[in-house]
Design goal:
By secondary structure, the protein is of the alpha+beta class. It is 47% helix and 12% strand. A hairpin with a 5-residue loop joins β11 and β12. Belongs to the bacterial reverse transcriptase family.
């Protein structure tokens, strides 16, 4: 009995797990095939793969090992249901791979779709003269042979002068002539359909959920959180394209290995410290500002346009999108450079942590000049200043930078240290009431210990309290 496979189903399988070897494709189809006896041989798959290459529906993207990816033409040949299913499976795999919790296909289906199994039985069939109704289903025994490699996401160090190009994508750089240029290139690099990207851009309101959160200082902050499809795409853009955008050395926000402590450290021991807060930081960054920044950093016009569309909502940078932090840092890169140069010229230290700008100096007149310069730069760049959070602190008062005291050394505020001490005292006296707060107390302990704010005797006391809470939590 000779078994063959429908070419559109083979293209669909490649599109889900691309770039894929013949073994990857075979294992994937075997994992989701309801009737194992209906599975065509590897040789039959090779014959059909070669035929798809001739049709330019798929392309050979590497030689050692030989791997294949679907082309834009091949993607367009998929019917609506197969294309929708491919996009759905691939994006949920990307999401789970990013979290480090890859799931079986059935788990992905169960998470978001109730009728996927029945849908696949209708949409996907294996061709066989004696088994015309054999079908594919989501199977618990699914094996994704190279999925951890294929969907490994993360920025990589790149030498200066190297084009902005993803380091892990469905096609190699030569396929795009060394750089991405358009939405077509972007869709192929991510491995999703152009229709999905354009649909998201045209119907952004369907891909965001808006809700308020309470600020510590009172009032509400509006969060525009992207839903799964768009969130995964924004994360991919952040890790493979936007991470190459310039960010100033004295900008400490949203950078790996940097924290509020690094931001505060450079202002220790100064006579005067000035804090300036930018009002509605993300909301002040427009789509036009993002587009301009991308063009200035070498993005092709069409690519800059689609990326700025995918990363904005209501023509503004949404607070809640994974792409917003890195874009905000890049938008202010020129201003950071200018203000740092002014600091060297007029002898003050400059740093920025998101919307918190800080300068420090031993001369009050210098501080006034610095403040005027910053106000002017922010206004010219389209930002407003939160006057209620702008203040100058001298050495005879508490100098705070991003929540840390910097008068003589960097350390948490006295109020915070007292709060933690009180929590541990209560936990020691009533451990049964604090078992559900073990993680909170552990975090507070290590945070204070990193600043050397806990005496040796207290360290032993706090460690004993944490050990007791941990034991009680196990019971």
């Amino acid at each position: 009995m000779t078994l063959s496979i429908r070419r559109d189903i083979l293209s669909w399988a490649i599109a889900v797990i691309q770039p894929a070897t013949i073994s990857d494709i075979y294992n994937f189809l075997t994992s989701v095939l309801k009737d194992k006896d209906a599975m065509p041989s590897r040789d039959a798959i090779v014959i059909e793969v070669l035929a798809l290459i001739e049709l330019n529906d798929i392309a050979r993207v590497s030689q050692k090992p030989t791997r294949y990816s679907i082309t834009a033409k091949g993607n367009n040949r998929l019917n609506k249901r197969l294309r929708h299913l491919r996009d759905r499976m691939r994006l949920f795999l990307l999401k789970n791979a990013y979290r480090g919790s890859l799931k079986q296909p059935s788990a992905i289906f169960d998470e978001e779709t109730n009728d996927v199994s029945s849908f696949i039985r209708k949409a996907v069939e294996i061709k066989d003269a004696q088994r015309p109704n054999s079908s594919l289903v989501a199977d618990q025994t699914a094996v994704w042979s190279l999925v951890s490699e294929q969907f490994s996401i993360g920025p990589n160090e790149v030498a200066d002068g190297v084009p902005l190009i993803p380091t892990f994508y469905s096609f190699d750089a030569n396929y795009f002539d060394g750089e991405l240029r358009s939405v077509v290139d972007l869709s192929e690099a991510i491995g999703i359909s152009i229709r999905l990207i354009t649909s998201i851009v045209k119907n952004k309101q369907k891909h965001y959920r808006t809700f308020p959160v309470i600020k510590k200082s009172g009032g509400e902050r509006v969060i525009d959180a992207p839903r799964t499809f768009l969130k995964v795409i924004q994360r991919w853009l952040s890790d493979f394209l936007l991470n190459k955008l310039p960010v100033h050395d004295f900008c400490f926000s949203y950078k790996k290995g940097q924290s509020i402590r690094h931001n505060a450290q450079i202002h220790v021991g100064k006579k005067f410290v000035l804090n300036i807060d930018v009002k509605d930081f993300f909301g002040s960054i427009t789509k036009k500002m993002i587009f301009t920044a991308l063009i200035e950093n070498g993005f092709e016009n069409k690519l800059a346009k689609i990326v700025s569309e995918l990363c904005t909502y209501n023509d503004r940078l949404p607070q809640g999108a994974p792409s917003s932090p890195i874009l905000s840092n890049s938008i202010l890169y020129k201003m950071d450079c200018f203000l740092t140069e002014q600091g060297v010229l007029f002898d003050y230290n400059y740093s920025r942590y998101a919307d918190d700008i800080t300068i420090s100096s031993n001369d009050r007149l210098t501080m006034e000049l610095g403040r005027e310069t910053i106000f002017r730069c922010l206004n010219e760049s389209g930002f407003d200043i939160n006057d209620g959070k702008t203040r100058v602190a001298a050495t005879n008062s508490r100098q705070i930078v991003t929540g840390l005291v910097v008068n003589k050394k960097v350390q948490p505020t006295r109020a915070y240290r007292r709060k933690v001490r009180a929590m541990f005292d209560h936990a020691k006296k009533n451990p049964g009431s604090f078992t559900d707060r073990y993680n909170v107390l552990t975090g507070c302990f290590y945070y204070l210990a990193s600043f050397g704010c806990i005496s040796h005797s207290k360290i032993n006391e706090y460690e004993n309290t944490l050990s007791l809470l941990k034991e009680l939590a196990k019971r």
